[in-house]
Amino acid sequence: MEALPELYAIFQGEVATVTEYGAFIKIPGCRKQGLVHKTHMSSCRVDKPSEIVDVGDKVWVKLIRKEMKDDKLKLSLSMKVVNQGTGKDLDPNNVSLDQDERKKRMFRDYTSQKITLEAVLNTVCKKCGCKGHFAKECFVQPGGTKYSLIPEEEEEEVAAAGYERDKKTSVADDSSKKRKK
């Protein structure tokens, strides 16, 4: 078997072919080629790999995955974690690669499982004695005056009648002021 680079090793390879989904890179010292997928060419979005690399270009790559599939060894490479000018590793702890792997993971579909809330707010306030709320949420003042959130219909009618009465008296006061002038 040929001497393959170690996992996460950085080396300079030559672009053998460019496809619509990436570029195949010749690995120095062996006959194998590795794929740089277009998602691993740059930290920016790459639509056409041919805009980034051409056949015969020398590029710095990092071996990010070795995978046996159908009795063939498939090598995945990355250009975006290596400085293309110096060959320096931009992701020495492989944090970026781990994040990319997490994004690709398939998550289980939990939509079929129903969530049931069985808690019922069956409480009695210790402050006012009303049902449906706790003492810390109570609107009763310490003096004992109760405030309701929605006024009763009778209270609304009484308040409306009082408003109209006040309005009539203010109109009468305005007319008496005009006469005095």
TrEMBL record:
<keyword id="KW-0687">Ribonucleoprotein</keyword>
<keyword id="KW-0007">Acetylation</keyword>
<dbReference type="GO" id="GO:0008270">
    <property type="term" value="F:zinc ion binding"/>
</dbReference>
<dbReference type="GO" id="GO:1990904">
    <property type="term" value="C:ribonucleoprotein complex"/>
</dbReference>
<feature type="compositionally biased region" description="Basic and acidic residues">
    <location>
        <begin position="163"/>
        <end position="181"/>
    </location>
</feature>
<dbReference type="Pfam" id="PF00575">
    <property type="entry name" value="S1"/>
</dbReference>
<protein>
    <recommendedName>
        <fullName>Zinc finger CCHC domain-containing protein 17</fullName>
    </recommendedName>
</protein>
<keyword id="KW-0597">Phosphoprotein</keyword>
<feature type="domain" description="S1 motif">
    <location>
        <begin position="8"/>
        <end position="80"/>
    </location>
</feature>
<feature type="region of interest" description="Disordered">
    <location>
        <begin position="158"/>
        <end position="181"/>
    </location>
</feature>
<keyword id="KW-0479">Metal-binding</keyword>
<dbReference type="GO" id="GO:0043489">
    <property type="term" value="P:RNA stabilization"/>
</dbReference>
<dbReference type="InterPro" id="IPR012340">
    <property type="entry name" value="NA-bd_OB-fold"/>
</dbReference>
<dbReference type="InterPro" id="IPR003029">
    <property type="entry name" value="S1_domain"/>
</dbReference>
<comment type="subunit">
    <text>Interacts with PNN. Associates with the 60S ribosomal subunit.</text>
</comment>
<keyword id="KW-0539">Nucleus</keyword>
<keyword id="KW-0862">Zinc</keyword>
<dbReference type="GO" id="GO:0003723">
    <property type="term" value="F:RNA binding"/>
</dbReference>
<dbReference type="InterPro" id="IPR001878">
    <property type="entry name" value="Znf_CCHC"/>
</dbReference>
<dbReference type="GO" id="GO:0005730">
    <property type="term" value="C:nucleolus"/>
</dbReference>
<feature type="domain" description="CCHC-type">
    <location>
        <begin position="125"/>
        <end position="138"/>
    </location>
</feature>
<dbReference type="InterPro" id="IPR047913">
    <property type="entry name" value="ZCCHC17_S1"/>
</dbReference>
<keyword id="KW-0863">Zinc-finger</keyword>
